[in-house]
Amino acid sequence: MKRLLLLLPLLLSANEDFISHYEYGEMLYSNPRGVSCAQCHGQSGEGRVIVEYKDKEGKKAIRGTDIRKETLSQMIQSLNSYHKIMPRYYLTDEEVKAIYDYLQKKNETYLSEFQETNRSK
Ligand code: HEC
What we know:
By secondary structure, the protein is an alpha+beta fold. The protein has one domain (35-119). It has helices at 2-30, 38-41, 72-79, 93-106, 108-119, and strands spanning 48-55, 58-64. A two-stranded antiparallel sheet has the order 1-2. Heme C binds at residues 32, 35, 37, 39-41, 50, 64-65, 67, 70, 75, 78-79, 83-87, 89, 99.
């Protein structure tokens, strides 16, 4: 019992560390350098319509893409390059990894279902 009590702070701090990494990712995803990823890619990275407009060909929409299945290296590469719509962020690899881990955790169920349907094909 005494041993367990000695271990307890260690266990708690390990847990806290994990939570703060998740929260760090959440914070970065929701508000990196003042422009939220969520604004364009949705709360969980599922993608969303940013704006809808009409031109002579009819109704059009600009979408933030679904980024839930991006790998970490794809994500680092995307965030380190220029895009037509998406701003350039200058996040470090650690910051991108925190965002990536946050999205992986948040979409755990979705991603595991996706892997299963992929496997059964
Ligand atoms: C102003 C809207 C906007 C914001 C804010 C934004 N994105 Fe994007 N993002 C896009 C669009 C649109 C694309 C598709 C490429 C393009 O046309 O810019 C994209 C592409 C990507 C891609 C590559 C995948 C693909 O479909 O091409 C990743 C990864 C990504 N965004 C992650 C992020 C993360 C992480 C953040 C926050 C740090 C973020 N984006 C913020 C609009 C945005």
